[in-house]
Amino acid sequence: MKIRLFRSLSLLLACALPFATHAAEVEKPDVVLHGELAGKDHQTYRTLPFDVPAGTTRITVQFDYSGREEKTAVDLGLLGPDGFRGQDGFRGWSGGTRKLFTVSATDATPSYLPGAIRPGRWQLLLGIPNIRKESHSNYTANIWFGHASDPAWEPAVLNPPLRKEAGWYRGDLHMHTAHSDGGCKNQSGERVPCPLFFTVQAAAQRGLDFIAITDHNTVSHANAMRELQPYFDQLLLIPGREVTTFTGHANLFGTTALVDFRVGSKEVPDWNALLKAIAPLHGVISINHAIRPSGEVCMGCGWTAKPPVDMSLVQAVEAVNGSDIGTPISGLPFWESQLAKGYRLTAIGGSDNHEAFQHEARIGTNPTGVPATVVYARELSMPAILDGIRAGHVFIDTEGSRDRVLELSGEADGAKASMGDALRVPANGTASFDVHVAHAKGASLAVLLDGKPFAPAVAAQVDTDDLHRKFSWNSDGKAHWLRVEVRDAAGKALLVGNPIYLNPTR
Question: pLDDT by residue (tens digit) across 172-203?
Fold first, then answer.
């Protein structure tokens, strides 16, 4: 998907996000191993020990050596603390095909085995199939440790941004595969669990920039995603899961850490306990299809959590699930009810796709990328996309077009804001707003203040593929939220914008 950059919003967000123009700094490794190989090491094995501290959740290794011009070759493997034949001892062998690899409990670079990261003395295993008698080779191994205190963290060297430009990125945040209830027809025409590859391929063919795989209560798909990401180098793969309980579903993005989903059990008495346990994981949590009925047709699909949930522990709401926009089970009213209570929750959308080859829309599941969640991010990386969602720099393209754009910016007393931002406007003060709509000719524009139509004069036909509308608002000094939508001739929302929060109290 070609990035859509629009100068006004790009400049505005660059001011609002001081980190936006800075590339992620490369973290210093926790351990650095240096050494030298010589002719005597020809066709031998050598181990390089290093100590892994308690609480480590991931080991990432970057290895390089000199002498390739003299045909020196060094192969690479990894051994756990019990040695080659011990429990979880042999953790992989990549030969000479990898300079960089990672292992964790949930995923590992191909050639390596996921599994528990036990503290103790680990070893890099070097094999030297060739080094000339007179040659010398210097090697360096940089090693990073992930920690339980920040389980979503990975070293920047492991996942560099797929694109470094700031802009609007389109994605799908709700998808299922063979790792839960995603299915497709096999070669014999029978429905079977559908390999994750086909879901990723469908997203790439649709031109999406990112997707989140959200299988039910599992992250087993993370290992397959690790394998696929280098091949799909224009499509960011974000690990997620649909936390699926008897009283509601919610997507958790950005972490593969263990989450106890057993709401109603002694261990997890209610959703508040679950959300408090999730908070330290530094992911993004979004309530899914909240108005969906619960029962035998869709067990736990509606949001019926009791006692009332502390919504300050939630970052987003799936306001559009599949093709439910404009139907009695649309999530928009639930989202707006939370805005009315003063919560700043980002509206997102997801196809809830359960069949990679699906082409027609159905309630409860849509083709990949319909709807699309469009995020303004500083770059195409998981941290940047999740930061954009947290910030509310998001609109939903309900039909999953490849080019429609909706932007809202505001200004008061020199302060500027865009969707998701706060704007302080004292009583009797005035804020000015600018709406930009692209590639939606023939639709209409609606401005909503606290969920109700505002400034009828602003509402107008979108009679061009590059529409700008300006309007102002006189403040009463109280808290409000203002957002915009683009609608078709029947009144159905095509583009759903997140609000600018006026004088927020939270």
Answer: 999 999 999 999 999 999 999 999 999 999 99
Burial class (CB in 10 A: 0-12, 13-18, 19+), 272: middle
Q: Mark whether 374 and 488 lie in a shared domain.
A: no
Cα atoms in the 13 Å half-sphere on the side-chain side of 123? 18
Of 2, 16, 14, give the one whose Cα is nearest residue 166: 14
Same structural domain for residues 165 and 253?
Answer: yes
| 156 within domain boundaries | no
How far apart CA 345 and CA 224 sit, in angstroms, is 31
Distance, first Cα to last Cα, the chain: 36
Closest by CA to 434, choosing from 407, 461, 412, 404, is 407
Range of the domain at 130: 31-147
**CB 129, CB 45: distance < 8 Å:** no
Which of these three, 103, 122, 147, is where a domain ends? Answer: 147
| 295 in the same domain as 433 | no
The pLDDT score that the predictor gives to residue 297 is 83
As a whole number, the mean pLDDT across the chain is 93
Same domain, 364 and 506: no
Residues 331 and 410 placed together within one structural domain of the fold: no
Q: Are 370 and 325 in contact (CB under 8 A)?
A: no
**What stretches of 204-336 adopt beta strand conformation (E)?**
210-213, 236-245, 248-253, 284-287, 316-321
The burial of 7, by beta-carbon neighbours within 10 Å (0-12 exposed, 13-18 middle, 19 or more buried), is given as exposed
| 5 within a domain of the structure (yes/no) | yes
pLDDT tens per residue, range 373-419: 999 999 999 999 999 999 999 999 999 999 999 999 999 999 999 99
Distance, in Å, from the CA atom of 189 to the CA atom of 60, rounded to the nearest integer, reads 42
Q: How far apart are CA 297 and CA 422, in angstroms?
A: 40
Considering its fold, how many domains does the chain have in total?
3
122-153: pLDDT as tens digits: 999 999 999 999 999 999 999 999 998 787 78
Which residue has better confidence, 18 or 395?
395
Output the pLDDT for position 366: 82
Q: What is the mean pLDDT of residues 447-464?
A: 86
Domain holding 301: CATH number?
3.20.20.140
Query: What's the confidence (pLDDT) of residue 295?
Result: 86
Q: How confident is the model at residue 457 (pLDDT cuts 50, 70, 90)?
A: low
Bridge partners for 284 per DSSP? 253
- Tell me how far apart the alpha carbons of residues 371 and 41 are, in angstroms, rounded to a whole number: 58
DSSP character at residue 197: H
Q: Is residue 154 part of a domain?
A: no
The predicted model scores a pTM of 0.93
Domain final residue, candidates 403, 419, 454: 403
Residues 288, 386, single domain; the answer is: yes
Assess if residue 112 is contained within a domain: yes
CATH number of the domain that 496 lies in? 2.70.50.60
Q: Between β-strands 422-423 and 500-502, what pairing exists: parallel, antiparallel or unpaired?
A: parallel
